[in-house]
Amino acid sequence: MHITLLHNADADALEEDPGREARADVERVAAELRRVLTSGGYDVSVLEVGPSPADIVAPLSSRSTDLVLNLCESIGGDARGEMAVPCLLDLLGLPYSGSGALALGLALHKDKAKELLVARGVPTPAFQVIERLAQLEGLTLRFPLIVKPSREDASVGVDFDSVVEDERGLRDAVRRVLRTFKQPALVERYIPGREVYVSLLGNTPRTALPLTEIRFGATFGSKPHIVSYRAKWEPSSPECIDSPSVPCTLPPALEAKVVDTAFAAFEALGCRDYGRVDLRLSDGDEPWVIDINPNCDLHPEAGFARSAAAAGLEYSALALRLVEVALERTHGHPSRRPRRQGRPREAARPHRELLTRRGSLRARGHRPGVAAE
User: What is the mean pLDDT of residues 216-224?
Assistant: First the structure.
């Protein structure tokens, strides 16, 4: 079986890039996954996605690819280009891992994601999108607030000054986002409390891996307990050293409530295969969804891999499982099933998604127990 591993190669695309470290990390993830999957018996090639995503069409069309592992998180240094790659893969009729273009686009447009959560009754902090400073005059949210770029992920643009207690701090934080990132600022109610991560794997059934949380140490003292960009991407920084991810222990009823909330958030955006939902627990142990991460970081030392290890899935087994999950969803059978040339797939059930390839329609296969998407 041949797997093509796609990843962005744009860490140096912009002269001034506040998300450079996050963009460089994906190349390390790709190298590690290639090593593990090759050891597992797969034929793996790596394809870099440059500033023009259409450039991947020719090489993908010229090789016999059974599955694309999509690790692409940005195009030309812009995270908003992430959804372009699954769009192209859908048009080419190639099965790929992770969420589709719509889910990725919604997750990256944080205000749209939150609107969906509100519509579904999933608890998320009250918010408002600010496109120009004059809009702050009509802001009705109560302090404290947190200000983030509305079109970034990986904590890009988040630091201690992002949490504000008064109008002056709010104006300064919004101005920084507007000027630095050239995009609207998301202003939302800041929820003090424990930060809990729910890693999800699979589709039908979908499984919650063991919960983790951030343990904020003495470095944070009187400062906001948030995972800033430095805490996430600068290993030598005090914020990173003093905010480890640790196993999260909750009373059974609260854990079930947290997991159910994460499931509801994941499903609201149409995410699939794997991902992570970040929540805050308020003083009354109410869970609040603060972020949804489809196609989350798969680095061996990242939180998702650690949660999988706690569930008994070491990194090599996790990589193989990700391949199987994607193939089960797209083809209706696990990766170890023999692949025969010209073998017809099962007929589509009503309302099944149809894909176009080589001028004809083909249905994504289905078997009992595999979700119809």
Answer: 95
